[in-house]
């Protein structure tokens, strides 16, 4: 007994000392201030899905469970901030950079292309009179020809006849000079020279075969006729290209077009040995975009008197220009940006003791400037961001349940309250028949019965025809029903045209949304249950309607028939 009395005495002394040594009133005030800061930065998460992080309590958008308070940082960091030590950053090769503006930015890029013949110097050698090719003096492409080189020999019956006419007219030219001049001009028309015509007249002999000579110098790039063939007047025989100048044509993407103009200089290199550097200027930018490759042709004309550049040869153009379109915007390296769909994420950093504090920030990216991008919104000059090891930092954020590339910032959407419009009970009854067929579709999908779902959709479409819009007396109700009707017809038409249950369920999402809006707007003379499945529609969640409080999930069927909950009861009266 005495032993217990001693124990009680020791306990009493401890309680007294605790009261005496307890913090003062001012300490309690400090604790109050700390609590206010915690409440201000408090975030709410899901015990089953820690990646969910919201600023207010509520339900988990994935599983529907109540959110719980997220643990606050022991280091006094904001909810979406996290810290890495300098040692951890060094091991992960994480680098940060203080960003600056884009004033005076320089654009550097490389274009790939090919050498082509200069089309302006191409010449097609044609036959000036009809006849048969007796002999080709140029038999292969690639041969060099000078101006006046004999290309082919042609036998032309009409030219033989014209020569005989000349000889006859020459004998009587004093009597009929007009005829004589007409015959000579006819031969000139076939490009016979005065010297050739005089020779025929002086010799009195008819030339059987005539030579076709090159009008220009160059390389034969195309042979268009064979020996022994008959040709018409004006028919092409050879294509001759003057390769003393050639074109270098490059493909440029549309996003680069604002950076270049005719007259800009660039350096062209070839793969020839030894590699050659050629300075050139942009001479042409194609005004038409190739819709297949999303590129346009950029051309330069090159001097090729030494013949080193061959058509078909691959070339590259290196361009360095001052960006004419750069505004006073922040420029950041492309290595600092994480791309996820339409979102662009960077990690902003700041020094904190023996390490850095990081936070993901969503930005709006502008045009590319070399290896950098302009930032239109989200960053300011002088801020420090991660420029190397960005994926490593993002992985650390995901592991700690912070905002990251895969866990975007919460965006609250404004929910418009649906206003109930007063309509007649008869209209409500007609709409109720449409809903009954909608419910049959839902039950068919819950049973995984695609055939029954299609039949029920056909019934729904027929019931739509039974709605009398003349019953809608107000302009507001008429417009509201027309909007609903168009969407119901669109989704039900797709459902009725397919036996693929996946397609039916996808369209049932939209059909359910518009049916909910219709019933909340007009009513259907009975009570229905608005139900919700957080896992349907790729975990985005879906609402649908049911006659019964019991959950029968139309989006998963027998696989997850009971998945969901009743969101609210819609009073249809």
Descriptive account of the structure:
The protein is of the alpha+beta class and 573 residues long. The chain has five domains: 1-39; 87-101 and 340-399, conserved putative lor/sdh protein from methanococcus maripaludis s2 fold, CATH 2.40.420; 120-241, OB fold (Dihydrolipoamide Acetyltransferase, E2P); 245-322, Elongation Factor Tu (Ef-tu), domain 3; 425-570, no CATH class. It is built from twelve helices and 29 strands. Strands 4, 5, 6, 21, 22, 23, 24, 25 and 26 form a nine-stranded antiparallel beta sheet that branches. The protein has a six-stranded antiparallel β-barrel with strand order 7-16-19-18-17-20. A hairpin with a 6-residue loop joins strand 17 and strand 18. Helix 9 runs antiparallel to helix 10. The longest helix is centred in the last third of the chain and has 22 residues, at 425-446. The protein is elongated.
Please give the structural blueprint.
Elements: H1 2-20, H2 25-40, E1 44-45, E2 53-54, E3 68-69, E4 82-85, H3 86-91, E5 95-98, E6 100-101, E7 106-117, E8 122-126, E9 131-136, E10 144-145, E11 150-155, H4 157-171, H5 177-189, H6 194-203, E12 209-213, E13 218-223, E14 230-231, E15 236-241, E16 245-253, E17 265-270, E18 277-285, E19 295-303, E20 314-322, E21 330-333, E22 338-340, E23 343-352, E24 355-369, E25 372-377, E26 384-388, H7 390-399, H8 425-446, H9 450-464, H10 475-496, H11 501-522, E27 528-533, H12 536-539, E28 542-546, E29 565-570
Antiparallel strand pairs: 1-2, 1-3, 4-24, 5-26, 6-21, 7-16, 7-20, 8-15, 9-11, 9-14, 10-13, 11-12, 13-15, 16-19, 17-18, 17-20, 18-19, 21-25, 22-23, 23-24, 23-26, 24-25, 27-28, 27-29
Helix pairs in contact: 4-5, 8-9, 8-11, 9-10, 10-11
């Amino acid at each position: 007994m005495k032993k217990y009395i001693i124990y009680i005495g020791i306990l009493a002394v401890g309680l007294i000392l605790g009261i005496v040594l307890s913090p003062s009133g001012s300490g309690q005030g400090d604790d109050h201030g700390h609590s206010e800061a915690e409440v201000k930065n408090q975030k709410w998460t899901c015990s089953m899905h820690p990646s969910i992080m919201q600023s207010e309590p509520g339900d988990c958008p994935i599983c529907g469970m109540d959110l719980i308070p997220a643990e606050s940082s022991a280091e006094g960091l904001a909810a979406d901030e996290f810290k890495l030590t300098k040692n951890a950053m060094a091991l992960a090769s994480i680098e940060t950079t203080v960003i600056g503006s884009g004033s005076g930015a320089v654009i550097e890029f490389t274009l790939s292309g090919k050498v082509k013949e200069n089309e302006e110097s191409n010449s097609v050698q044609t036959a000036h009179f009809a006849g048969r090719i007796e002999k080709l003096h140029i038999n292969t492409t690639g041969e060099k020809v000078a101006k006046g080189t004999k290309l082919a020999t042609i036998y032309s019956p009409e030219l033989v006849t014209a020569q005989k006419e000349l000889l006859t007219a020459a004998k009587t030219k004093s009597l009929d000079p007009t005829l004589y001049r007409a015959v000579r001009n006819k031969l000139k028309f076939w490009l016979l020279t005065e010297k050739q015509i005089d020779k025929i007249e002086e010799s009195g002999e008819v030339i059987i075969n005539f030579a076709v000579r090159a009008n220009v110098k160059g390389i034969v790039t195309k042979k268009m006729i064979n020996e022994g063939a008959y040709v018409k007047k004006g028919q092409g025989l050879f294509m001759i290209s003057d390769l003393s100048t050639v074109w270098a044509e490059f493909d440029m993407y549309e996003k680069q077009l604002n950076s270049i103009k005719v007259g800009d200089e660039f350096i062209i290199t070839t793969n020839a040995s030894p590699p050659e550097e050629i300075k050139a200027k942009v001479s042409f930018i194609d005004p038409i975009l190739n819709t297949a490759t999303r590129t346009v042709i950029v051309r330069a004309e090159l001097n090729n008197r030494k013949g080193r550049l061959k058509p078909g040869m691959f070339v590259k153009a290196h361009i360095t220009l001052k960006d004419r379109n750069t505004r006073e915007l922040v420029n950041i390296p492309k290595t600092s940006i994480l791309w996820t769909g339409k979102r662009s994420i960077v990690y902003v950093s700041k020094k904190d003791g023996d390490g850095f504090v990081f936070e993901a920030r969503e930005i709006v990216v502008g045009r590319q400037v070399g290896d950098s991008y302009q930032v239109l919104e989200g960053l300011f000059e002088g801020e420090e961001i991660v420029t190397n090891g960005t994926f490593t930092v993002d992985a650390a954020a995901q592991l700690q349940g912070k905002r990251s590339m895969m866990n975007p910032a919460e965006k609250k959407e404004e929910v418009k309250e649906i206003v109930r419009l007063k309509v007649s009970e008869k209209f409500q009854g007609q709409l109720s028949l449409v809903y009954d067929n909608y419910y049959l579709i839902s039950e068919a999908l819950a049973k995984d019965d695609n055939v029954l779902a299609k039949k029920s959709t056909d019934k729904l479409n027929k019931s739509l025809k039974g709605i009398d819009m003349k019953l809608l007396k107000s302009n507001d109700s008429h417009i509201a029903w027309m909007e609903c009707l168009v969407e119901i017809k669109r989704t039900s038409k797709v459902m009725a045209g397919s036996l693929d249950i996946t397609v039916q369920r996808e369209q049932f999402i939209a059909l359910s949304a518009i049916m909910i809006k219709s019933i909340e707007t007009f009513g259907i003379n009975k009570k229905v249950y608005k139900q919700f499945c957080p896992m349907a529609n790729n975990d985005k969640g879906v609402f649908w309607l049911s006659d019964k409080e019991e959950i029968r999930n139309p989006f998963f069927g027998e696989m997850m028939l009971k998945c969901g909950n009743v969101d609210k009861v819609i009073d249809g009266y």
